[in-house]
Amino acid sequence: MEQAIILENVSYSYSQEKPALMGINLQVPSHSSCAIIGPSGCGKTTLLYALAGFIKPQAGHISIFGETLDAFPKEAGIILQDYALFPWKTVFDNVFLGLKLQGKTRKGAEEHVAHLLQKLGIYELRSKYPHELSGGEKQRTAIARSLILDPKILLLDEATSALDEMTKEELQNLLLEIQIERRTTIVQVTHSIPEAVFLGQKIVIMQQGKIQKILENPIFGDLYLRNQPEFFEMCAKVREHLQEGASL
Ligand SMILES: Nc1ncnc2c1ncn2[C@@H]1O[C@H](COP(=O)(O)OP(=O)(O)OP(=O)(O)O)[C@@H](O)[C@H]1O
User: Which residue numbers delimit the ABC transporter domain (predicted)?
Assistant: First the structure.
């Protein structure tokens, strides 16, 4: 099995006293999905930033498709919590931007962008600006902006946390469909147990800068999972590990 991401003994400190990551070892196979969950301040975002090459670990090694990571990996797209859309660009132009930077013309890219906007249910919004969109619509635009470049890895930092429950579930379904159809490797930081179980084939539970437990999730990959007893059982299992970690 090819590994998309390998972290070996990765440690990172923002300051002298308290390391944010301590000896992280993790493998994420290609075409799989990994959810990272843990209490506030345990190092989830720091881990994602290390994978994106935004910060450089003081110790350890990260490789992406077998190559040492030293800058933002060309195979990756990242979606941050605040969407990071350009406010002066329309939905279409925010999504087109990546192709433009690759030298594509607007006319040449029009069909490709339109197709993706349709797929994500935001084609009708193509001429609107970010301030005219709801949170869920902004997040779909941010996802489209990443997907237009067909990344092999998608990194998401609490991508659905600012959304209401139903919009959250719609977006989770969309991410699962993307993972299944495009076989994109997804690494997602989340605060939500149901989200981790729905979207994580591998669920990484973090505690105080360390990986406390890695759970393989055999029920991953079903769009109709949420009402099934196995789903509740898996959520309970993750909750138990989180509670156990909190009492250490
Ligand atoms: N820029 C920074 N400078 C100094 N310390 C930081 C910085 N960013 C994060 N930290 C510290 O590093 C630790 C890990 O933070 P991180 O943001 O990775 O946690 P998290 O699990 O993503 O938290 P949350 O769920 O609240 O977003 C925390 O103790 C935090 O205070």
Answer: 5-233
Mutate to test the pocket of ligand 1, among 12, 13, 14 (most ligand atoms within 8 A of CB): 14
- pTM for the whole thing? 0.91
Farthest CA pair distance, the chain: 58
Residue 108 CA to residue 248 CA, distance in Å, equals 57
DSSP, collapsed to helix, strand or coil, labels residue 88 as coil
CA of 19 to the centre of ligand 1 (A): 10
CA 203 to ligand 1 centroid distance, Å = 20
* Dihedral sign for Cα atoms in the order 233, 236, 240, 241: positive
Residues lining ligand 1, Cβ inside 6 A? 14-15, 20, 38, 40-46, 191
pLDDT tens figures, 23-46 = 999 999 999 999 999 999 999 999
Instruction: With H, G, I as helix, E, B as strand and everything else as coil, classify residue 137.
Output: helix
N residues, the chain = 248
Task: State how far the Cα of 174 lies from the Cα of 188, in Å rounded to an integer.
Answer: 14
Q: Given a cut of 90, is residue 114 above it in pLDDT?
A: yes
Q: Nearest Cα to 182, choosing from 217, 144, 216?
A: 144
How would CATH label the architecture of 1-75+193-248? 3-Layer(aba) Sandwich (3.40)
Query: Atom 12 (ligand 1): residue with closest C-alpha?
Result: 20
Identify the bridge partners of residue 137 per DSSP, sorted by sequence position: none
